[in-house]
Design a protein that fits this description.
Elements (H helix, E strand, L loop, with lengths): L2 E10 L2 E13 L5 E4 H7 L5 E6 L5 E13 L2 E10 L6 E2 L1 H7 L1 E4 L4 E4 L6
């Protein structure tokens, strides 16, 4: 699993004027992007469901999820995000990375464009 810090813009998907710039940990071990709940609440992101997640500790926790606009390196997408407890490290998950057409390059510690497939 690779870890890279990236600058990102997170916004309400229906009103992108409600936005914040964050440093996210691009975590190839995290399927979903996960953001502390207070940040998502401030942006007006709505909870649309709940999902169970296995944590690095091996524990399984259930968190609310909703849709947010995520922009990295000038590319933006709407993606499902998990609402983490206050004080948690914001994570950029692999699903959002793939939607953005990006992947972690473990040799450089940076993001790079990925080869997109339609097979």
């Amino acid at each position: 699993m690779g870890y890279v810090r990236v600058k990102a813009v997170l916004a309400n998907p229906y009103d992108r004027s409600k936005r914040v710039e964050l440093s996210l940990l691009a975590d190839t071990g995290a399927i979903y992007t996960a953001i502390p709940e207070p940040i998502l609440v401030d942006l007006g992101v709505s909870v649309t469901g709940r999902r169970r997640f296995k944590l690095a500790s091996g524990e399984v926790e259930e968190y609310p999820v909703g849709e947010a606009y995520v922009e990295v390196e000038g590319e933006g997408v709407t993606s499902l995000v998990a609402f983490l407890p206050k004080g948690s490290t914001p994570l950029l998950g692999v699903t959002t990375l793939e939607l953005l057409g990006l992947e972690v390059d473990p040799t450089t510690g940076k993001l790079k464009p990925m080869e997109l497939l339609l097979l």
